Design the sequence.
């Protein structure tokens, strides 16, 4: 569908300029879309392998934890974790990948994860907690990757819509308008020529 | 003269208890029975497999998530039964003391956090939780037995003088507990047992501190006093890694445990086995309270093994891994 514009040479020139920009933009966005797809696929495969590893580690760490828990009475076990000296802070920085602000999570641990007495608790509990802490760090990495995938996917969707809008709407519209203006200008040229020929004939009498 | 009289008094005092214990000992679960229980598919099957044991009455009409509670009830009953049986408050007070110390730690933490943690207290302690809670709430520590009052003082002091560190509170209370348990005058056997326990706990503590890379920071506070190998001896040994332990423990009964220094679960198992073998060495004595105390502690270990099996099976832990942790 052509645009509602005046069929003048000025408009034609500006439309041709717009068409050029749109084609260049389309090419760039298409490249961005391909790159985003590549990054997303790479991140997804990284996440998938990480998820598999983390699930195994988590199951192992949880089993260690449950067995360590069983060494003491429930009261003693739960009592050991009261009034902990441990504070975990999660901060977020942003880094830009293809102009998409992506999160970078950073965990900081204040105090010690093992902050109970040793006389009534099993040493296996220290190992279990240390393993759980390692898994926790990897879970944060996984959360970061998942969030990145979501944001990149949103960006890719936006880019795809832009590419499609350029490819199927804006560029064909401008092209068709340019074609119409060209036709109208040619028509006008022909009209002018025939009008001049008629005037010439009249003068010649 | 006096010596003979003392033996006669002891002899008659615990004869009935010994008889009852002899009858109960045969019901202790054997290694084969533990293996049978381990092969249960699911907690429900495990519960039904235990109906003919001492624990059957506690596990009747119990859901799979309540099994741990049922085992705890069995433990409470075990302490109450033996208290009635030996009718010796002082000995039971020492045996229940570790739960009193746990309770005081929990209540002090609650006091500091201004929260009620009394539901995390153990009901096995010699002082009722409600009474202990009231004493801590009202800060009438003078109403506590001397050893708990000292524990409160040292615990609070350690907490506030070390940047509000709750671990230091635990270390301080545990140290008072170790001093109390290893200096009791009621039974030389109990003292010997707890000295043994302190040594094993200290050995494990050294390895724990090395594993956590906090040996230099905490060795002065985490080690328990009262063991056969004193705190000073350990500190003088200037331990830097687990290999330097060989020198410290050379020639002691604990040296064989260093074979498992790289696996805490195996080390825990072997050290508990050493304690159990010590208890079993007095189990067949014909007089004295020792076999009764040994029975209590062996039974306590049995309950812990069952808890490991229950929790392991409930959480889908493999049979081999559970078996590795059982102290049999």
Sequence:
């Amino acid at each position: 569908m052509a645009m509602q514009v005046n069929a003048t040479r000025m408009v034609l020139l500006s439309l041709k300029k717009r068409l050029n920009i749109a084609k260049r933009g389309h090419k760039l966005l298409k490249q961005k879309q391909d790159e985003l797809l590549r990054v997303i696929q790479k991140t997804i495969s990284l996440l998938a392998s990480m998820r598999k590893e983390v699930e195994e580690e988590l199951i192992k760490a949880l089993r260690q934890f449950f067995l360590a828990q069983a060494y003491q009475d429930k009261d003693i076990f739960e009592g050991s974790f009261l009034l902990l000296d441990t504070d975990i802070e999660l901060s977020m920085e942003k880094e830009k990948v293809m102009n998409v602000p992506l999160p970078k999570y950073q965990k900081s641990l204040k105090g010690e994860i093992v902050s109970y007495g040793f006389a009534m608790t099993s040493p296996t509990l220290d190992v279990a907690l240390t393993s759980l802490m390692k898994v926790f760090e990897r879970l944060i990495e996984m959360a970061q990757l998942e969030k990145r995938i979501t944001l990149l996917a949103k960006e890719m969707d936006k880019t795809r819509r832009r590419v499609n809008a350029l490819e199927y709407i804006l560029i064909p519209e401008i092209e068709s308008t340019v074609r119409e203006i060209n036709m109208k200008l040619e028509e006008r040229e022909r009209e002018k020529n025939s009008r001049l020929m008629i005037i010439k004939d009249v003068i010649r009498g | 003269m006096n010596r003979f009289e003392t033996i006669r008094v002891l002899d008659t005092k615990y004869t009935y208890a010994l008889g009852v214990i002899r009858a109960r000992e045969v019901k202790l679960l054997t290694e084969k029975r533990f293996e049978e229980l381990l092969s249960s598919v699911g907690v429900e099957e495990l519960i039904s497999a235990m109906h003919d044991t001492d624990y059957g009455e506690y596990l009747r009409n119990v859901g799979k998530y309540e099994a741990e509670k049922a085992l705890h009830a069995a433990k409470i009953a075990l302490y109450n039964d033996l208290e009635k049986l030996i009718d010796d408050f002082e000995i039971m007070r020492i045996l229940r003391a570790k739960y009193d110390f746990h309770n005081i730690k929990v209540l002090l933490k609650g006091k500091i956090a201004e929260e009620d943690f009394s539901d995390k207290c153990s009901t096995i302690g010699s002082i009722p939780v409600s009474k202990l809670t009231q004493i801590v709430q009202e800060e009438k520590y003078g109403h506590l037995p001397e050893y708990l009052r000292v524990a409160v003082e040292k615990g609070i002091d350690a907490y506030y003088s070390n940047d509000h560190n709750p671990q230091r509170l635990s270390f301080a209370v545990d140290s008072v507990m170790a001093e109390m348990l290893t200096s009791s005058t009621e039974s030389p056997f109990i003292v010997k047992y707890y000295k043994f326990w302190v040594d094993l706990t200290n050995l494990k503590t050294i390895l724990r501190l090395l594993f956590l890379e906090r040996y230099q920071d905490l060795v002065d506070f985490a080690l328990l006093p009262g063991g056969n190998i004193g705190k000073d001896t350990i500190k003088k040994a200037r331990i830097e890694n687990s290999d330097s332990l060989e020198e410290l423990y050379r020639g002691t009964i604990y040296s064989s445990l260093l074979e498992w220094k790289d696996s805490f679960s195996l080390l825990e198992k072997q050290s508990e086995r050493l304690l159990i073998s010590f208890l079993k060495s007095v189990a067949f004595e014909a007089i004295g309270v020792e076999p009764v105390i040994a029975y209590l502690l062996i039974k306590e270990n049995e309950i812990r093994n069952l808890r490991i099996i229950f929790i392991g099976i409930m959480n889908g832990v493999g049979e081999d891994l559970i078996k590795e942790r059982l102290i049999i």
In short: Chain A has one domain: 9-193. The domain at 9-193 of chain A is CATH 1.10.287.3240 (Helix Hairpins). Residues 2 and 177 of chain A are 5 Å apart (CA to CA).
